[in-house]
Hints:
seven-stranded mixed sheet; alpha+beta; two-stranded antiparallel ribbon; 7 helices
Amino acid sequence: MLRIEDANSLPLATYRERFLPSAIHPPPNNNYAPAQRTYAITCESSASLTTSGFEACFDLIASSSANAYAASSVGWSPAKKRKEMKLPDLRYLLLTDAAARIQGFLSFMLTYEDGHQVIYCYELHLSPHVQRRGLGKHLMGLMEGVGKRAEVEKSMLTVFVANQVALKFYEKLGYSKDQYSPEPRTMRNGTVKMPTYVILSKSLQEWATDEEDEGG
Length: 216
């Protein structure tokens, strides 16, 4: 098993070769005309992401989630989000259209959570006109594949409780509430304070076992 630190220190080209399949393009969706379903997916690091690419990703976050952040206990801070997006070990799966415009992305990191080696999904955002085409599911599958090849224990992510659409999406992918997700807190005056977000996780070790059994 490759240590998390060693995996994250790999040159980007080596990282791609080791953890991503040779063809990571999404499958065609025959419900849409060819011009509407011509997408490409590339893997970048926070360091290799271009300025325009960075801004496109930030704009997707701000347009879809700024209000949700502001309404939560986390709060919305553009400066803090930009700083987080530049974490050295963060990797990006960029979804681009035929004109090379970013239409969505998933950012993730191989890291540790409570002593466990995991792959953590930081953000998943798609432009409205490319949603409901299986692209989010495809990006999640690619990220989970990285985690499996890195032999981490599980895939994790954080989602706002108010985002019921996202919660149902992740549940369909096999995610459930993680043991380290925050629980309701009872204040001194007896008021129960409910968490505004939930941590979800999905075991990746079972995937590896299943594939080993199938392979004989």
